[in-house]
Design brief:
Number of strands: 5
GO cellular component, one term: nucleus
InterPro entries: bHLH-TF_ACT-like_plant, bHLH_dom, FAMA/SPEECHLESS/MUTE-like, HLH_DNA-bd_sf
Pfam families: bHLH-TF_ACT-like_plant (PF22754), HLH (PF00010)
Largest sheet: 5 strands, antiparallel
Subcellular location: Nucleus
Strand content: 15-25%
Structural class: alpha+beta
Main location: nucleus
Number of helices: 4
Length: 179
């Protein structure tokens, strides 16, 4: 009997937490009331909030009318930091940070803005079997661009770690910037 009571309490607590989680999200993020839909909606809502936060940070930087350091508040532990640390304008330098959680990649890239850069980079990432889920672009002065990209690793993707993704993306942007 105690096992049944413990399990009943666990289910009641889980349902209470799911109801709280559901109440914290806009209705558009939860289409059905099952557990998977609530958790999936919460993940999407957090991603949306993260995109909004990055946008607000960029607006704050622009309103301050002070040229921000590219890595302030954007990068936390970059695998590549050539762009923001270069003293002169190096068109080929690029900063990249990638984090990987259960087949989803959060990618941050800072580089000098170039014509066609994003389209070619997206095509190259698709060839690596990295599907683009969300994209946020912030342009700064001098002609700098910050990209925040959420990717999903497809089953055919040969990359396995965040460092491998960061290296591949660094190579993609470095190549594009030399053309």
């Amino acid at each position: 009997m105690t096992h049944i009571a413990v399990e009943r309490n666990r289910r009641r607590l889980m349902n209470c937490h799911l109801a709280t989680l559901r109440s914290l999200m806009p209705p558009s993020f939860v289409q059905r009331g099952d557990q998977a839909s609530i958790v999936g909606g919460a993940i999407e809502f957090v991603k949306e909030l993260e995109q909004h936060l990055l946008s607000l940070r960029a607006q704050k930087w622009l309103q301050a009318s002070v040229a921000p350091a590219l890595h302030d508040g954007f990068f936390t532990s970059s695998q590549y930091m050539g762009y923001s640390q270069s003293q002169e304008e190096d068109a080929t330098a690029v900063d990249v940070e990638a984090t990987l959680v259960q087949g989803h990649v959060n990618l941050k890239v800072a580089a000098q803005r170039r014509r066609g850069q994003l389209v070619r980079a997206m095509a190259a990432m698709e060839e690596l079997r990295l599907s683009i889920l969300h994209l946020n672009i912030t342009t700064l002065e001098p002609p700098s661009t910050l990209y925040y990209i959420n990717l999903k690793m497809e089953e055919e993707c040969k990359l396995e770690t965040a460092d491998e993704v960061a290296t591949a993306v660094h190579q993609i942007f470095s190549y594009i910037n030399t053309c």
